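Reviewers of the previous submission asked for a worked example of the structure-prediction workflow described in the proposal, so we include one complete record here. The input consisted solely of the amino acid sequence. No template or homolog information was supplied to the procedure at any stage.
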Amino acid sequence: MGRRLALLVATYEHQDSGLRQLTAPAHDAETLATVLRDPNIAGFEVTTLINQPHHRVGEAIGDFYSDRRRDDLTLLYFTGHGLKDDSGRLYLAMTNTRRDSLLFTALSAEHIDQAMDGCPSRQKVLILDCCYSGAFPAGRLSKGDAEVHTLERFQGHGRTVLTASDATQYSFEGDRAHGQATQSVFTRYLVAGLRDGSADLDGDGDITLDELYGYVHDRVVDEMPQQRPKKLDSVEGRIVIARNVNWSLPAHLRNALASPIATDRLSALDGLAHLRRVGNERVRAVALEEIRRLAQDDSKVVSTAAMAQLRPVAAPKQEAAVKPPVPHSESVPEPEAPAAPITVAPRLRRRRFYLLTTAIALGLAAVVGGLLAYGGGDDREPCPAALQPTATLPRKGNDWIEFSPDEKTFLTMDAGSGNTVRLWDAKTRTPKSVLGHQTLPNNAVGFSPGGQFLVTQSAYDPDEAATVQLLTVANGQTISVRTSADGVASAAVDPEGAVLATADASHPAKEYKNPIQLWNTSTGKSIRTLTGHANGVETMEFSRDGKTLATVGRDGKAKLWNLADGNAIATVSGSGGGQFSPDGKTFAAWSSDRTGPLRLIDVATGDIDARLSGAFAGVFSPDGTTIAAGTPSGGMRLWNVRKREFVADISDKSVFLGFSPSGAVIAVGTEDTRKVELWDVKSHKTVSTLTGIGSAHTLKMSYDDKTLAMVRKDGSIAFWDISACS
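From that input alone, the workflow returned the following structure tokens.
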């Protein structure tokens, strides 16, 4: 491992009376040196030069860049005056610098550039905290331009340059200096970001140079809008400057892990997997410990997903998975009672909605079963101020519930290791059939969008390929597809019910090739294989016209696939989930780390059409005109899609459930008070409250817009009649 070396040069005092004495505190460089030298933070070998003549500093820089190795990290920092001669050449002022003799008394930027060029290190960092001026003898006019573009003076391979500003902020008239002397805002935030770890923007335990620059830039501009730091880099890979000594598990993950709601705990797995993949040694250890704890969770959905992340990937099997597997004709195990055929209305299922929790809006917990109806017409009775549960399913041990599109059936999945899916009559709440040794795919798809199929998979077995079953709800016939997924799969069916898409959903720390497989739902035979993901895939959704498939993987990539030719229309990095707009023309790619903006992708071109800052994940309204989006702080906001404008804050801490069919009302669950509220989009006020929620595992709404169901902690299910609001 290479050495980490830093040379800090600070010049506050000048013999030339024309150079204003700087107002920055003399201890700025020493404070930065202390932080860089701290073995718990950055661990640099630091040399500090304060108010030294140019020949002493030049000699030190020469020694600093000599005898270095390729894997050494070098950091040269300068604070003081930057001067430009009448030919536009840049110099750094030392204590003996004379404005009328820069060539012989100042440190030439060209010489520093040459020294850096001669250094074999592949990671060279130069930080300049100085203002710049046009320097020339009294009475002469400068031939240079009005600004000194510092970055252009220090371009080169293997180096990164950070400057406090790249514009002239200090000028000379005659023999006197005028303008503002340099201020220590830039260095102050450099020190603060490193010392308390606040520059660790992605929360992975390491502070990279990019993160440090982003942190400092934003705070400097906020405090001094006229000063804009700049950055130039030509370095392969990232440069880790320091460790976040104050790192702890992010608050949204701690809250999710401590939540009694299973979907919250499940959603935390995404953040934990991300930390395990990108975090430093300490962060990975904490994330692994939490995942292992979730593997013992009393919720079957949570424990299965956690175990899938812990399971190592066998490389040879993944290579073989690229070949289309031979489908097997397997039957669903005999149910406890004869399964009655399920009649499905010949209409497309309403769009699935995604759950945006205060933890993170990703993964299996994201699936929501329907829309909430709300009557806003003047000729209707108003919604009651409060609604109580109207029915219960006393059977305990349930872990999941989902309503069918035909409004006649709902399914439940048993908690624990039972691997049993049960079908119930939605009107009488009596059992219809039992599917043993089966569970739901990892992304919680149950009923297909058109309602033709019930989609399940074989019980989790880390040593066996996952088998996805398509049960035709009209006649009870089953087609089984043996996928390439090891143990756990994600699945999706197109709106017409003609194509099944599957992928491996396991999330090991090590990357692996994970193909998307397309199957004919009538024959169970392979149609096409799409390659491009390098880890588990959770988000899978077909566009409304069935021509495009969206997938999002744990490799942080969101991909849009043209199903006609199998090519990727777009690939967006840093994604953790997403959703098509109702018309299928736009895909909203969610940020994987909660810091990045929500991006809207034009499906036709694959271009990023817009970025919504202050939002990391969002769900379209039924008409596609608005988006309800989660904020990095855990709140909910409403955005106008067409104008790309923020509309209103919905809640500072909420769980998103769904829009009403008209888009006039949003249902939100508030974790702190354990209730569901109906929020009016126009008035921005709560119009009704569903009480008696208690401690919940899962909340779902039916497709007939009349029922809300909740899986309680003991596995029983409560139902609310919300038809009075429809």
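The mean pLDDT is 76. We consider this example representative of the routine output the project will generate in years two and three.
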